[in-house]
Amino acid sequence: MKYLLKILAFISLFLINDAAAQTIVKNDTLSGTPLTMTMDKQIDELLTTLEDKCSTSLASNSGNSWNNDAEPSRNTGTKINIPERELSRAEICRRNPRIMGYKIQLAVVKSNEEAREVGMYFRRRFPNMKVEIDASLRPNYKVMAGSYVSKQSIASDLSKVRTHFKSAIPIQYRVFCVEAK
User: What is the pLDDT of residues 134-151, one digit of tens each?
Assistant: First the structure.
């Protein structure tokens, strides 16, 4: 649209007699800044008609096709793809391999040796659950187990773990999507 305005302004400056021209102020369609032009009243009417035609065709076409009379419509908003069906877990995990989920924090200990002992004790009681040691809080070490998508999915395992680890709590943590329950 901005390009079209420039062309019409150029035509009005050189082809129209200055005696019939008038000063017209239009707002730029992209930035909204005022544009001052000198043009014939008939060209202004044609331009206004064309702008009205563009705005009605934009509303009816929803920004997906070309207009015959104007430049292509642009969708400046964020495009959101809504799938026609619910995505499978594998498709979701392919797009986001690591998600914000939950783990069970078994204990926070002072040394790596203690963390390994806690991990081995846990593995003997729960061989099907993965144990992880987080050393990001040095000199303290977090011992965590499992990977869960939500607090609801962690509830049953947490109650079983609390029989051996009374202080076990769910904590928010980045987990691999394919491993999470």
Answer: 988 888 999 999 888 888
